[in-house]
Specification:
Largest sheet: 7 strands, mixed
CATH topology of the largest domain: Nucleotidyltransferase, domain 5
CATH superfamily of the largest domain: Ribonuclease H-like superfamily/Ribonuclease H
Number of domains: 2
Strand content: 5-15%
CATH architecture of the largest domain: 2-Layer Sandwich
Radius of gyration: 22 Å
CATH class of the largest domain: Alpha Beta
Distance between the termini: 39 Å
Shape: globular
């Protein structure tokens, strides 16, 4: 059976299975431990619980490290519950219950600032007068790249097929908007929406521009054409788009677009890191209500892996 103790002395295997080094894994498990104990205490002392304290079936995976490994292997390879149960030695229904208990705790353990970073920074912006002082305190908000990513999903019921059909991808998808700093840190993950929603429509629907300080430089792609005129602030950086009366771009405009692409390539690198977890790369086959939590968990794990200094400073 697959267990953490069999992998702790084999760093390459642990990293391939979980995406984390042994030190990162130990740190994440240590942060997760008090959250797990608090969640279990609430579950066992809830008002409608019929069993006495201490009653009930024991977990097949006795240690928290093994439970975390089960969740990370699921994210990394997107196995079915049947196969995951065979690997860890318990029934598929118990796999589902374990994942449902662990998933809400991962963001708080991996990156506790992901949910509240923008709100906290907006409050501090009112207290810090000079923009230079604010950028020194919050360097991630000097420049922000915004983009949306789509993931295929199973064909939905006929009554909602049209709203999930993406004309760009030519299939049914789920769309999520990300805000990423110029240092590669994920600052915000939106709730998923049907793939039919345009990137710019989602940008307006989520009030993305209003979430950022007025002087933050915002890097967008051609899909957000018109944002600079619709929102006087923040400072937008957009590529030049060819139009019917402007079919040929000048050399200066082409150079500007090349520079713009270099600034935005960072978001593609971050999305590639996220999609190494196959739960975000394959056709999504679980409940849609669960999808937003999974995307936030993967974003927090990517921040945890790549931004340890940034997370310790905030």
């Amino acid at each position: 059976m697959l267990r953490y103790q069999r992998l702790v002395g084999k760093p390459p295997q642990l990293r391939r299975l979980s995406g984390l080094t042994p030190d990162q894994y130990a740190t994440l498990a240590r942060r997760l431990a008090p959250l797990w104990r608090a969640a279990e205490s609430r579950r066992l002392t809830r008002a409608n619980r019929q069993r006495a304290m201490g009653a009930g079936r024991r977990y097949t995976l006795a240690t928290l490290e093994d439970k975390l490994l089960c969740l990370l292997v699921f994210y990394r390879f997107y196995l079915t519950e049947d196969l995951l149960g065979l690997l860890f030695g318990f029934d598929r229904s118990n796999v589902n219950r374990l994942l449902a208990k662990l998933e809400p705790l991962v963001v708080e353990a991996a990156d506790p600032t992901l949910r509240s970073f923008l709100r906290q920074a907006k409050r501090q912006r009112k207290k810090i007068g000079r923009w230079e002082d604010f950028v020194q305190a919050y360097p991630d908000l000097a420049g922000v790249v915004v983009d949306a990513t789509e993931q295929p999903r199973r064909r939905p019921p006929k009554r909602v097929q049209r709203c999930y059909y993406s004309g760009k991808r030519k299939r049914h998808t789920l769309k999520t908007q990300l805000m990423i700093s110029r240092r590669g840190r994920i600052l915000h993950v939106s709730q998923p929406v049907p793939g039919r929603v345009h990137d710019y429509a989602l940008f307006k629907q989520l009030h993305t521009a209003e979430r950022l300080p007025p002087k933050t430089r915002l890097y967008l792609d051609r899909g957000y054409d018109g944002a600079a005129t619709a929102y006087p602030s923040p400072d937008f950086s957009l590529p030049v788009k060819r139009r019917r009366n402007h079919r040929v771009l000048t050399r200066g405009e082409r150079l500007h677009n090349a520079w713009q692409a270099k600034q935005r390539i960072l978001v593609e690198h971050v999305l590639a890191r996220m999609k190494k977890y196959q739960v975000l790369a394959q056709v999504y086959r679980h409940r849609i209500a669960r999808y937003g939590q999974i995307v936030r968990n993967i974003a927090a794990l990517v921040n945890f892996r790549t931004q340890p200094l940034a997370l310790s400073l905030t």
